Hints:
Blueprint: H1 4-33, H2 37-63, H3 83-110, H4 114-144, H5 148-158
Helix pairs in contact: 1-2, 1-3, 2-5, 3-4
Amino acid sequence: MLSPKLLDALNKQINEEYYSSYLYRSMVAYMEDKNLDGCAHWMRMQADEEHMHALKIFDYVLERGGRVELQAVATPDRDWDSPLKAFEAALAHEKFMTENITKLADLALEERDHATNNVMQWYVSEQVEEEANVDDIVNKLRMVGDSGPGMFMMDRELKSRPAPAPIAEA
Ligand code: FEO
């Protein structure tokens, strides 16, 4: 049985993951508006992945006999000054998410809930990967600067991002 404190924190994290998905979906719309198909594709894959992050906790709470309580999802930003600024916002968001996961893992240990801590360790590793991926894109976009051909190449590279693994394999 999940402790009430942990159940509440997990429900909040489900909401944060849904918000992440919503934020990246908003970035899809922004990139499409700029005719950056590759960037839009990358954001679409990321939005799908965040949706799966939400579902993984959702299913875990149910598995532990907890009550999932979905909450309103906040309105994400819709505009950024440039694709680079959007990816910088994505990186800042992932750092925020890492902090949330760290707090949840700490709370699970405080509550002596090793099963939840174990699930959170999956997210800890996932966050390392997510931050590294976005950081790499931010660095490349900074190198590209105002170069049109550079942006064209970068957009083409981002189009090759594969779809996220299904939840059962996650
Ligand atoms: Fe699910 Fe990118 O945090």
